[in-house]
Each structure stands twice: as structure tokens, then as C-alpha cells.
Amino acid sequence: MSGSIPFYQKHHRHYDRGYRSKEAESKVSQYQSSSRYTAGSSMSATSSSRGLKVSSHSGLDASRLSPIPKRAKPTYLAVDKENQIIGYVVPIFRGSQEFATGLSDTEEARVRDTAAYMARRDLFTSGLEMERSELISRKQTMRESAERISLNKRIHEHGEHFKRMNEDSLMHPPEFVIKPRSHTVWEKQCVRLHCTVSGWPDPRVVWYKNNVTIDPLANPGKYKLESRYSVHSLEINRCDFDDTAQYRVSAMNSKGELSAFASVVVKRFKGEIDESLPAPRRASTEDGPVSEYGITFQTHIVDRFGVSFGREGETMSLGCTVIIYPSLHRYQPEIQWYRNDALLSPSKWNHMHWSGDRATLTLTHLNKEDEGLYTLRVTTKSGYETYSAYVFVRDSDAEVEGAPGAPLDVRCLDANKDYIIVTWKQPAIDRGSSILGYFVDRCEVGTNHWIQCNDTPVKFARFPVTGLVEGRSYTFRVRAVNKSGMSRPSRVSEPVAAMDPADRARMRGTSAPWTGQIIVTEEEPAESIVPGRPLELQVTEATKNYVVLSWKPPGGKCLEGVMYYVEKCVSGTDSWQRVNTEIPVKSPRFALFDLAEGKSYSFRVRCCNSAGVGEPSDPTEATTVGDKLDIPSAPGKVVPTRNTDTSVVVSWEASREAKELVGYYIEGSIVNSNVWEPCNNKPVNATRFICHGLMTGEIYVFRVRAVNAAGLSQFSQESEPVEVKAAIASPAPPYGISVLECVRDSMVLAWKQPTFIGGADITGYFVDYREVIDGVPGKWHEANIRAVSERAYRVSDLKENRKYQFQVRAANMAGVGIPSLPSDTFLCEEWTIAVPGPPHDLQIREVRSDSLVLLWKPPVYQGRDPVNGFYVDIKEADAPEEAWRGVNNKATEKTYLKIKNLKETEMYVFRVRAQNKAGVGKTSDVTEPVPALTKPGTKEILVDVDDDGIISLNFECCDVTADSKFVWSKNYEEMTDSSRLTVETKGNKSKAVFQTPGEEDIGIYSCLVTHTDGASSSYTLSEEELKRLLEISHDHKFPIIPLKSELAVELLEKGRVRFWLQAEKMSASGKVDYVFNDNALSQGEKYKMNFDKNTGVIEMIMESLTPADEGTFTFQLQDGKATNQSSLVLIGDVFKELQKESEFQRKEWFRKQGPHFIEYLGYEVTPECCVLLKCKVGNMKKETSALWYKDGREIKADEHLGFTEGVLKLEIAQRDSPADTADYADSLIWRRLKISKKDSGVYKVVLKDDRGTDTSTLNLIDQGFKDLMNEVFSFIANSSTPLKITSTETGIRLYTFVSYYNDLLQVTWHYKDSAISFSDRIKSGVVGEQLWLQITEPTEKDMGKYAIEFNDGKGGLRRTVELSGQAFDDAFAEFQRLKAAAIAERSRARVAGGLPDVVTIQEGKALNLTCNISGDPIPEVTWLKNDREITSDDHCILKFESGKFASFTITAVNTADSGKYSILVKNKYGTESGDFTVSVFIPEEAGGKKK
Length: 1491
Hints:
Oligomer: single chain
Low-confidence stretches: 1-134, 270-293, 509-526, 1197-1201, 1214-1233
Structural class: mainly beta
Number of helices: 13
Largest sheet: 6 strands, antiparallel
Helix content: 10-25%
Number of strands: 103
């Protein structure tokens, strides 16, 4: 047997993952299994055949083969500058060492790493040493090298080809190349099951034992799983009898799932174990963490996603919370998602996430392909749990109104080199206009350019796309079209490569294992041979748009480069016409278009190559162009069945003789609406479907139509109408059977209501019992023939001290349900305990986020004394038993309790205990866990009082069903007496109406809605609430016209009096009566009445008030049966004050007929601290005069009296200069910058003309003047700057500036919040607008907070500064510096005076100059002549006496004494100089100069 590694195995990028030789892998697996537990051995074998020497070496250890070092691979490809392959180079012969095996070192190493090489080596491990050698000539070696280089070139070309081809086109489902075989072994032996699996993507392999997943971590050391190069094995160590089972291996990928089975039988024997058998594998830490034994995982899927509805283009997330107990972090479950039982894999359309407790599937971009039944599967070592719900995807809005929905499920079939058949499914909706056909678009992978493949729409849902480029990958999409326009495009198909099916099959197939030989054969050149006839030509598909032909290549050699010509002939003629005249066909399939519909054709095919065109094939039989596939017939009878409140089960008879049926579309319509809506947008293959999303209580009819590639069938007949309502079924079994009381011959049982009541009220329960003798139960006996309505029943006729078991069945109108599980075994013996038995029938109502109400029934067994109270216990559902705690510390006598202060979303359980005088009795059964959560849509009971004063309680429930009932209770006991409360229910609302509310109606009213998820609410009617409601009821029975304002009085112009009120609302028929002291008033000269019904304002106007009008005024209102009145009492001082004000207003009106003051005289202080007296006047004219007076003295015109814009002003001011007086000569303003006490006085303004006189006076004396000055001071204070710190030579000064200063301003300086007592050291003063505080010779005692307070007669204003810390240090340092500078300035050496600038003296005369010197200490005196120091001698005598007087004497001057002289005085504080010039002249020269 001979062979070689194919190029697509050796060089394809997925070689190591899925394209190895399956037979070789199996051989390797068997070899490793048999050799793993044997001692290592070393063998060598050498073989040779024609020109090829093959040597093989196997060095084995306990676990693996030793690798062989690799060298760089030599290349023989010829490339150009751009690395493009242009040929190959035959190397010079290098000797027999490199070519001894016919392969280079690198190639040989790669062959050794392949499965084929290992299989070849396995053939030489029999212990025989074989050598084959043959001399090989240089010519043969060169030829083999050239063939190898040619093969490398083909490998490279194919590699480039596969880079362009999308790998998804190579995907195929799993396939078992070698299945596991069954084994029979002895105890304590090891057994290994292995198999070889192919598939792409790599399948996921899972092993099962009796359909339970095998987890090696759960049984450390027992199982060992291995997966290498598509060879998968399960090793069972130290088999025992329990390992006898059926084992299943399951391989799964995105294309499907496949399983294989094998049995293992373990036999027991007595004897020694053969040591040559495999030893058990030892558990080690490398095998993973050791699991605990005996753990059983409990999986619960909660918070589930429901039936979901989406629209194309939207994003949808499906999620469930997974609770696994016990929770072990190192054990994570396997999470899988399925759609229509097909496993989903992560892709751009599906995103999967597992957070550790929640599984989420996100559909990123919904399409109708995503519609289906979604299943979540959670797998643990203890089994798996699943949950399923349907997802519906509706069509998105059409881009063009009336355009059909998008096609769906676009797939590619029968891919060839130059054409691909595209199929799709028709959409469910056409939006009222029949679909005319479909357009197919293609797009090359890697581009975004879509090309339309057909010019005219095709109605058949299958179309061959031609004109493809071989080796390239494409995606496709389809659009539907009708009269209105084009639909949206479908979801794109999976990529598919245009390539020869034979190449595709070779890529997916397997190759023979390596045989150890390379056979080189010679073939004659075949370029000149014309190919033969094609074989088995047939028409595989025919429609009215196209015909597809297929054939087989001709037999014989040299098929390389063979292409085909297709010819057609109209039946009845002998005229053959070549169809593809320009481009021959490469693949043995061809699609013909543009055939005349209805005509018959025959077809034949010719082969061609470079040698020429061969003979034609045998022609096909006559084929008539037209659709062979017919549209399916309409489905049969449609039967709808009630399912839930929003869904209906629709079943139908399948279409008869339907070919290639794709599925069915279902539509539903509300009766008499004539509007049909699709129930599914993806065809279903079954004849039964659940239509979701229907409206509860509506009546629907349904119809169905079938679909195949030819189109949609006619609709079936409409179904019978069906109401959307939950189906009725028999109830589930009760549970929680317990004993409430036991006497000698009877026992009282209690049980819990079934979790599912079947959609109808439970009508009763049936109890069965059986006796248990020595642990063996007997036959069941009926305890009651007639059903009992209560969930408690006394079973009689029992035997004392016998043991019994019980079971309970529930019944409703649908029938009797299955019985419950048998109860625990109870002993029938009389209870003699003193404490009460357990309460029973615990019910939970009114569940909210922070509270709920617990109801219970008292115990049947009272104990020695009657029950006098109950205790309620609570704990979190997942808390231990020690977490039980009491809700009420004091026993409650009621059989209900509202439990508050719950934690939102927390799960709680409850129990109740009864007590009597003897103590607290047994606890009741624990309730089911309940979450503290207010459900969406929950409503509370609302109290209402209607217009007739009737009080009612109202409750609304949004979750009612057709069978729901509103049950009202008082104090949680159902009310049957309708004498006090009448219940009215309509739809989802119920009303409880009080007949005659009274104290006997006080209590807690609750309402429970049956057939809902516990919808309930309560309302507490307390004594205070009842009183409030009765008051409201009285107001409604005896209505009062509401008033916006009570009767009031106001004065109008001219002193008129207006009485008025305003009502909230009155109709047009309302009327008003006006009453004064019980006497009706009527319209007249004295009384003017007015009633504005639009605004509700009622008024009565009187011209004036007289003493006779003192009394009570009343307005009486009436509007239908509603009345009201309002009164106003005007007597005594109130009346006199009103009358006085009326008279004043009357006089004021007459006053204002002439010149008058609108605003009387007042003053205003301007920001410049000027005082402005002003008043506002009105009704002035040119002749009106305005005179100002101060203290009775008229202010003359030259004192600048003025009037502008109705305002008279007088500014109290002082002129600054005569120039300022001239500037103000024409103004009416008198100005003084600083106001003083001289400005105090009484100011008056008199207005006068022929119409009358008006006067206004302002008193600015004493308090008036003081108030004025305080306002001035306030302006001054507000203009002050922040208090600052500066230093002087005498100390530290604090100061502030004001914009204006007045001598009357009172200022107080504070130190540490105390007024400062001034002294010689601390003084204050004012300089201009600066106010300062001087601290002489400051010390640290002067540190602290200083403030200046401006007194304005009110709160004053205070400015503060902190003289401490760094501020004090800086100021003190500056003070020291300035002080030292002052001292230095005073004490430095100075030349006080006495020296002239120039001295002119006659030669021979004596010169004596004296100057005063000052300085402390006494300065040093130096005399200079021409900047050189001179000393005292007989000619020049220098003296410095008493430290004050310096003299300069020259006894007899001469011309040499002329020059510049200087005196320089100096001490430690400074230096100063005095200069003078001495000019000596000779008398003769002087005389000459004069002349």
C-alpha cells in the first residue's frame, strides 16, 4: 500500500485541527494505548524502494515520542523582485545524505510530526529490523527533486487560493471516522474507549455514562479524558462492577450533533491480575482539583425570560438567573443555548454571557431567521435543567409604503466553480399586494459592493447565480418586490466559495495512511489526446426561468484542463445550437437561461482541451421548460384550542401531496375586524403552533397556508372562533399534609392548596388513607365520598395506636386531579398535651416591598385551656433554623397580622404558634417563601364620596381574568351580610358601598381577586377616618356654594363704599339676595348691585355712609340646592372708622381737583451724602405757584427754588466757592456739601393757584434731624474702605478712607471687642477723608483684633482688622525700620551752613571761614583741597571746636591757595560735605581788569 500526504493536509492552515488522516490517528491512538504501560524500547528499520531510501526510528518512553530537531527548510521556488512565484529551480545534486529519504530535513521532520508518519513508524515497531536499500542514480534523484519542487509550487498556489476562500464554506457536521468499541474486562483492570471524530469547526466531545455526563474532577483518579488531533479517549481506571454501563460519546459543533455508543462489561474473578495489563492511573494534583464525594448539585432556573416579541433591526436580550446549590466557585456549569433544538454558537448575531449566576443571550440585530423556540440548558455533573420560550420577530417598517416583507433564510446550495444555487423562504406578509418576484444580490467577501444577479424578478424561491470567479467567496441576499415597491434586503447568507465540488470533497475527505514507500511512476504525455464523451448527462432541475444540467467527466487519463461545451436542440428538429460559445464550462454542471417557456428541449455536452473538442454525449430526453414543482395545496381543517390568557394552540391538517414543503404560515384575526395579522414570520414545519401575543377576552379566527420554493398556497378555511382565555385543566395535587388533632379513632388533617388550580376554582378535596403495618403500606381507602371545601378534614373510623398514611386530591369543574404524594406516617393516638396544637391554613396577602399580611386559622386542638393568643415568627428563606425570630412580642388575639419593616426583594418564610394558659404550642407548617416586592400594576383600595354623599371603597385590578372574582372581607372574614355593605363589580373594578355608615362599620376592609397572582389590598376605617368621611358626605348631601372670598368692604374713589364677595362657581340660574339688618335691599339711588356670573363677583356700592347705615350686611346665595351666605358686621368703632375713612377719601377727592401733593414732602440722601428734600405734585398748571418755607421763613427765589416733571426738590447744600455760586445761579438747587445742625428746622411747601391751595410739611428738628443724620452716617459708613495697617516712625497706624466725612459722624475704635481708652500712646484722628488710630511704640501687648464702628443710629457698621501674627510682625518690623531711619536722619553728620560758594580774596590777606557742624555722635571733620586732604599747619589753620564749629583760616593767602576746597563731616549715621572755591588775585591784576 502506498500513498503520500496530500497538499491540503500538509500546508492548509487548519491541518492540525481537522484535516489529518483519520485512519492514521486511530492507529496512533491504538499504539499509544498499548505502549503506555510497557517498558520503552528502541527499534530501527530501514527500507528502500526504487531510488528512495526510507529509514525510521522509534524511541518510546512511558508517555510520548521524542521529537526530532528541525533545520531550516530549503526552498526551490523562483521568485521575481516582488516575491511573485514565476517557476522553480532544480538544485545541483548534493550527495546521498540529504536525499537519502527523498525529503529535506525539515520536510522529513514535518512528516514525522504528522499522523501519517506516526502510523508509518507504528508499522515498524514489531521488533523486526528491516532494511531496504537500492542504488539510485543521479538522473533519478534529480527527477524526484524536480517533482518535489513542482509539488511545492502547487502547494503554494493552493495555499494562496485558500487564503482567498472563506473558511466558513468548509464547515460540516461531526462524523465518527472510528467509533468506540465495546469491551469486557476483569475487575481492577483498566479500559480505554477511543474514537476518531472529524468535523469543522472542531467538534466538542462529551462522554456520558448511562446518559449522565462524566466529570473527571468529581471522581479524581477514576476517569481520564484526552483529546489529541481529533482522537478522543476515555480511560477508566481500576474498573469495578459499578462501571458496567453503556457509554456514549457525543460530538457537537455549530453544524450538528452526533453520538456513538459502546458498552463496558466488568467481570469478577478469583486469581491474580496479569501484570502486563495496564496499571491504574494515579490521581495527581496535575489532573485538577480533587472534588468532594457524594455532592449532588441542585439547579434552579429563576427570573426567566418569557415569550418575547421583537422587530427586525432591534436588539433583544434573553436572560435567566441560575441558582446552583451547593455553590462551589471551582465548579461552573455548562451553559448552552438552542434555537429550535439547534445549538447556537457565538457569532456577530449571537452574543452569550455567563456572569456566574445569570446566563444571557443577546441577539444583536434581529431578523426573522432568529424567530423560534429558544432553550437554555444548564448542565452540571448531576444532570441538566432546561427552560424554553418562544421569540417572535416581526417585520420592520417598509422603506416604501406597501412593499412586502423581506425574504428570509437565504442559503447556498450546489456550489461550483462558476455558479451557485441560492435558495430562500418567502416572507409571511405582502402588505396587500401579491409578490411579483425576487431579486438576488451577490457581494464578494472582503468588499461592500452588491451586484444584482437577475434583471427580471424570479418567482421561484431558488435561483442559480452564474458569472462567479473561481476560488472567490461570496455572500448573497434576496429582495422581494410587488406593485408598491421593493422590500428590505434579507439577512446575508453564510459565505461560500466558488470551487469545484471534487476539490471540496477532497478537502473534507481523508487520505490513506503513510505506507513507508514513495512510488514514482512515469506517464506518457497526453497533451495530444482529445477527451472522450461526458457520461450520465441529466436534467437535475427545471423551472420556467432556467434548467440545470449535470454530468460526469469522461473516463480515461488526462482530465487536467478539460472543459465543456453545452448544446441544446428544440424537440422535433436536428438543429443543435451551442449555448456557451465564448467561455467553456469548467465544472460538470451548468444552468441554462432564456429558454422559451412551454417548449421542449434536448441537451448534450462536449468535452474539450488543448487538443480539440471531443464527441458529444448522449442527448437528454425532451424536457419541457416550466415549473416542475407545484405550489402546495391549501392546508386542511384548522382547529384552535384555548391555551393561556394571551395564546391559542392552532392545529391543522397538512397539505396533501405537497412536494419540498418548507413550512406553514399562520394568521389570526379578531372576529368582524377583517384585519389579519401574521402569527409567525418564519415557516413552521409542524402542523401545530402556539400563537402568542393575543388580546385576552377577544374572539379570534385563524387560517393557515403552506409554502415551498414554488410559492405560497391558498389560505385554508377559517377556523371556528375561539375566545382567548386560559384553558381549564384538572388541578395539581395538594401538598404539605399535616395532622392538626388526633383522638382515639380519628385524625384531623390539613394540607396546602395546589400550586396550579387548572384555571378554575377548586370545588373540593378528596382524602384517602391507608394503614401501614411494619413499614408496609396497605390499600388506599376513601375517607370522604362528598368533596370537602375546606383544607382540613377529620378522618374517622381509624384504629387506635395504628399507623396511617394519607393522600389528597383536588377537584374543579375539569375533574379530579392526581393524588398528592403519600404523607408521612402518622400514629393514631389521642393527644393529651396541655398546650394547643399547630395553627393551620396560613395565607399571605397584600405583599408589598416593605410589608405583607399573614392570615391563619386557629388550631383544632385547643389543649387543656382555650387559646388566648398567637405568636408569629419570621426568618429569611435561606437562613438557618436558628434565624427564626418573633414578629410580635405580645400575643395577638386576632388571626391576622400585618408584618412591616421588611427588606425589599428579600425572600421570607413565616410560621405561627398558639398559646393558652399552659404555654405556647406547636408551630404551624412553614409558609412558602415569598419575596417582599410590590408587583408592577399593584393598586390600593381607594375611598370615594360621590355627589349624593354615598361612601364607597373602590378597588381596581389589572390582572383579572374571565374567572376572577372580587372577594371583600371585613377584618379578613368574608362578608355575607349585605345589609351594611353592597358590592358592585364591573370589569376589572369593584365597589363596596356603605348603606348607613356608623361605628359598627369600623374595621379593616380587604379585597382579594381570585385567579390572579395574589392581587389584594386593604383599607383601615378608623373612628377618625369615619368622622372625616361623614363630614364629607354631609357636605355632598347638603352642598354649599364655595366662596373664594367672604363678604368684605372697601372704599372707592370719592369715598364710595363697596361691599363684595366672590363665589367659586355658580351657574346661570344662581341668584343673590342683599339683606341689611334682616331687611331686603333693592336697587336704587343709594344701593347699586351687580352680579358677574362669569367671575362669581357679587358687589353692592353705596355713595356714602351715614349713621343710619350702622348694622349687619348679608349676601345670601342660592344655586340649585346649593346655598351659602356671608355677613359683615359694621357697628361701633369699626363703623366709625370706616365712616371717617370714607369722609377722608371724599375730601381727598375734592382736594385733588386743584394742585395737590401726590407724595408729601420727604427727604432722600444721595450716594454723594447730599440731602435732597422733594415732593411729588399733580394737577399743576403754569399759574400754579410753589413756595418753600423753613421755620416759617420763605426761601427766596435766589436761593434756587425749582420744579421739574411734577417733582419739587430742595437740596440742602453749601457752595464751595464764588465760582460755584455763579455756576448755580440759574438752578433751583441749594447745595451744601456738609450738612450741619444749622440745617435743622421745619420745612414746608405751599402749592397755590385759583383752584385751591395744598400744603406739605417736613419736621427736621430733634428726632427728625437725628434720623436724617443717621441716614447720612449710614452712607458714609458704607463708603468706608476695609481697615488697613501701616507703619510710621512713631508706631503702627490703622486707617480707613470714607468717600465723604461729616464732623457730626460718631466713630468708636475697639480693641478685642472693647472700646479703646485713648492716651498719649494710643490716639485717633481724621485727616481729610482718612480716619486713623495711632499706636505709639507698640509692643506685643498691642496684638489683637481692632475695629472701627460707625454709629448710624441702627445696627451700625464695623470694619475689623487682625493685628497679630505675621501682620503684626511685618508692621512692627517696618516701624523699627522707619524709626531707625528717622533717628539716623536726625543724628547723621551735617554741614549746617556758614560757607560761601566762592571766596575772592587779595593776595596777602588773611582768610577765615567758619561753619556749623551737627551730628550725634560728634562727626569727624576733614578738609580737602582739590579733592586732596589737607592738614592744619602754620599757613592753614584748621579748627573744630565744641563739636559744633569748624573754622578754616589762611594767615596770608597767595595765588597757590586758589582752588576748590571741601569740608567732609562723617559719623556712623552718614557723611556730608560742603564745597567752596577760593580765588586769590593780585591787586595790579585787579586794577588792570577794572580799567
